[in-house]
Amino acid sequence: MVARMRSKTRTILYFAATALISASIAVMLTVTLTNNAKKNTVVLSADEYNKLGELRVLNEIIDKITTESLTGEVDRGVLVEGAANGMLKALGDNYAQYYTAEEYEEYLSKINGEYSGIGILVGQPGADGAPVLDVYEGTPAEISGMKPGDIIVAVDGASVSGMQLEELTAVIDREIGDSVEIKVTRDGIEKMMSVANATINIKRVHSFLFNEYTGYIRIDMFTGNCVEEFDEAFRDLTERGMKSLVIDLRNNPGGALDDVVDIADTLLGECVIVNVKGTNGRNEHEYKSSGKALDIPLAVIVNENSASASEILASAVKDNGAGAIVGITTYGKGVVQTTMRLDTNGAWLKLTTDAYYTPNGNNINGVGVEPDIRVELPEEIRDMAITQIKQTEDKQLWAALDEVRERAAERQRS
Q1: How far is CA 23 from CA 19, 30, 53, 150, 346, in A?
Q2: What per-residue confidence (pLDDT) applies to 174?
Q3: CA spacing 20 to 30 A to 196: which of 27, 163, 294, 409?
Q4: Are 317 and 325 in contact (CB under 8 A)?
């Protein structure tokens, strides 16, 4: 009886196994035959299909343009790039940017201090144009007669009003040897200039020691080799007996977050430099200084063109009580951009992904950093490049010098 039941059970299992194997073979054959019959078919999830459907509109527009437009033959790649730029404009992110692979290489060259351009530092464009903050010595811009304080109103006949800073620099900087027609206003008078592009090499940090042993370091931008240049300047001033320090961030439009954090680490003791937070708190990161606090009085000079990374350094110094902020309210750019590579075509996308908060928890976007000691320059020199202002007329510089020297003297008395 037991033997029969085992035999019967074994037979049932054999049949079940055979049926399962047969079913598997059938499924494999079906899949193989389906794949052979539909070699160009891609299976998508419902979510992927819906997203693809949204892009069909874009593809249909491109098809209509390439087949029906009177403008003639148009490269589809050019249309896709135009669509990408259009999406960024629709986003409402004033700092968003789409770069082709070639454009991104040019962008990297520029921020690293060597690039093809005309040799100017230009400020954020406004309704009346973009201010020329500095004209570098020996560059095509200087040779053509451009001066700090000029207002760029048009490039190759197109108004620059409403442009973003990087958009403006992109239309000015060309291949080496290529010329660009620039219209500026100077004292209310319009001037046209034809400026050829050349290889431009830029030093970001400049320093010297005043005769009362006050060090001075001006940082034009937090890009390129600025950290190494700052370290070298700081070390040189220290070895020469510096007893107080003034850092000049006027007309500094910002730069790399990592660079300003590295420089802040040289100046500040153990403290928070800046907090960076993304949407809904994602990617939150607190940057701290682990260095030894600067053991001499410090002042930082700022103006309305000090932006982004400049404001991070000024805020860190102010909120941590490490020094005095001198000048006028800064620009107010409290957001951080991230560049990301597109796998599909090797292009790059820059988006505003994070906001930064000062050590006291403030976001200064659209507000700026208020100085501890408010000093305005006389109107007649307000638009000059820092290098063009005579030291005897630079009230902001002297206010900063007086502040740190008085603190140094107090230390000696105590």
Answers
A1: 6, 10, 35, 81, 45
A2: 85
A3: 163
A4: yes
**What pLDDT does 15 receive?**
41
Q: Within 13 Å and on the Cβ side, how many CA atoms surround 266?
A: 19
Identify the segments of the chain with pLDDT beneath 70. 1-42, 44, 49, 110, 113-114, 280-281
Burial 1-29 (b: 16+ CB within 10 A, else e): eeeeeeeeeeeeeeeeeeeeeeeeeeeee
pTM: 0.73
Tokens of 274: 């800046």
pLDDT at 209: 96
Residue with token string 């992927």: 48
* Residue 3 pLDDT: 36
Residue 293 corresponds to which tokens in the numbers above? 């606090």
